[in-house]
Design goal:
CATH class of the largest domain: Alpha Beta
Structural class: alpha/beta
Distance between the termini: 48 Å
Oligomer: single chain
Radius of gyration: 29 Å
Shape: elongated
Strand content: 5-15%
């Protein structure tokens, strides 16, 4: 029987106790042995790879080395001192459970998908050419496979051919969203390869367009005219997709889902499309959950294209959500596994599971700190301000700052006070939403997360880390 892998963990003084607690529980469950090297620095995140390399001691039999994920610098530095692979672990050691759990799953094929995203640009006739092109580029960057040109009902857009030709020349796959034959013929001649939509009112002209069409019923609630339009197009050899039309909540939503199942039963081999914007745009709720739910329905029923829009403000990231969501549902359905703990980018509001140190560990941190700066934590309903020999806690930031003054800390200058206020505001936001808070790091908003901009003490911390390659660090800014 082969021996379990041995992993060598590198950390700093403050994290040593917590790391040992985590590994005592985690190693037997995952199946590895471990060793820990504690370097002479308080905060492990301020280490750099060149600084670590000068001090790294790898025990015999080690399979790999794990350094803190927040450590800066190239990993290639370690090749000069050891042949053992060196990797970055999670930025927070409290994420080691997730880190090893993620590694143990088979995600080698994750990212595959089979659902086309058609992103509609609404009221396209009202946009200048440059704005139309910019919007198309944005949607494609977010994951759209096809750009749908949405025309305005009740009028004829005479410049539609020029708009489609411009997009096609830029390499876009284009569809035209109109029932008006004059707009459709101009768009298809300019390179549009899909028409949304066809029913009994314009089916007579469809054979002349020379492209694929989306068939919708004359009356969605009864599917009136649907079979007749399908039959005529099939006889005329027009390629088609079927869309029984998704209805908003309160206007037949449940029945419309049933119609998709019924049409799939009646036309088992047909291509189908769902216009999911009918739900995301018309429901007072952030769009990500709705998008994933409908994509899961599509994946299970073989609906291989969805039409989405980004008009209302709560659906302004629908294309990106659909791009992430189609990968998630494909993975779940093809592997018969739950769509859980796989795609963190889709969990925006409550992303980042809160992790807790507990009062005892925070008190130990306060005892170990030697520099004059504060560490901030958010857990158990309160913001915790931890400094040298000081551990304060309150839900109220103003009360917290009064406690700082009462503790005799009169060395907080305006710049540092502003920084602390900014960080405490982030901590309160994390408490309010049940998110994880980590000082000097952006709150986790899933795919909406923006990188934290380093200023003040945060920027100073980066400078300390940079200098750490030349000298032994003695203290770190908060």
């Amino acid at each position: 029987m082969s021996s379990p892998p041995r992993i060598h963990f590198v950390t700093g003084k403050l994290a040593e106790h917590s790391l040992r607690q985590v590994l005592e529980r985690l190693a037997p469950r995952v199946g590895f042995e471990y060793s820990i090297q504690v370097l002479n620095i308080t905060v492990a995140a301020l280490m750099t790879t060149p600084w670590i390399a000068k001090r790294l001691v790898v025990p015999p039999g080690t399979s790999r080395v794990l350094i803190p994920g927040a450590c800066r610098g190239p990993l290639e530095t370690f090749a000069e001192v050891t042949s053992v692979p060196v990797e970055r672990g999670p930025e927070d050691l409290r994420r080691l459970d997730e880190f090893f759990g993620q590694q143990s799953r088979d995600l080698s094929t994750y990212g595959d998908s089979c659902i086309e995203i058609i992103a509609e640009i609404n009221h396209a006739p009202r946009l200048a050419s440059a704005d139309l092109l910019a919007e198309a580029r944005r949607l494609r960057a977010d994951g759209a496979d096809r750009i749908d040109i949405g025309c305005d009902p009740g009028s004829v857009w005479t410049a539609v051919g020029d708009a489609v030709r411009m997009l096609v020349d830029e390499g876009f796959v284009v569809s035209i969203d109109s029932f008006e034959p004059r707009e459709i013929i101009a768009a298809t001649r300019a390179g549009a390869t899909l028409v949304l939509s066809v029913n009994s009112t314009n089916v007579a002209a469809a054979a002349d367009w020379g492209c694929e069409v989306v068939v919708v019923p004359d009356v969605p609630a009864t599917l009136e005219g649907f079979d007749e339009t399908i039959e005529r197009l099939t006889n005329e050899r027009v390629p088609l997709r079927l869309d029984p039309v998704l209805e908003p909540i309160g206007f037949g939503f449940a029945a419309s889902l049933g119609r998709y199942l019924e049409i799939r039963r009646r036309y088992p081999d047909a291509e189908m499309m769902m216009g999911i914007g009918n739900l995301t745009e018309l429901t007072d709720v952030d769009s990500a959950g709705i998008n994933v739910m409908l994509l899961g329905f599509c994946q299970e029923t073989g609906i291989r294209s969805v039409l989405t829009t980004e008009v209302i403000h709560w659906a302004r990231s629908s294309v990106k959500e659909c791009d992430l969501g189609r990968r998630l549902v494909h993975h779940a359905v093809t592997n018969r596994t739950l769509p859980k703990h796989v795609e963190p980018g889709l969990v925006t509001l409550r992303s980042g599971k809160p992790q807790e140190f507990g009062d005892a560990q925070l008190d130990r941190i306060a005892t170990a700190i030697r520099d004059p700066n504060f560490r901030i934590f958010a857990e158990r309903g309160e913001v915790h301000l931890v400094g040298a020999g000081l551990h304060l806690a309150s839900r109220d930031p103003f009360l917290l700052f009064r406690q700082v003054a009462e503790a005799g800390r009169d060395d907080v200058d305006p710049s540092h006070a502003f920084y602390l206020g900014y960080e405490v505001a982030k901590a309160v936001t994390a408490l309010t939403l049940g998110k994880d808070y980590r000082q000097d790091q952006a709150l986790d908003w899933g795919h909406l997360t923006q990188p934290e901009i380093a200023h003040g003490p945060s920027q100073a911390a980066a400078e300390v880390a940079k200098k750490a390659t030349q000298s032994e660090p003695v203290g770190e800014p908060s």
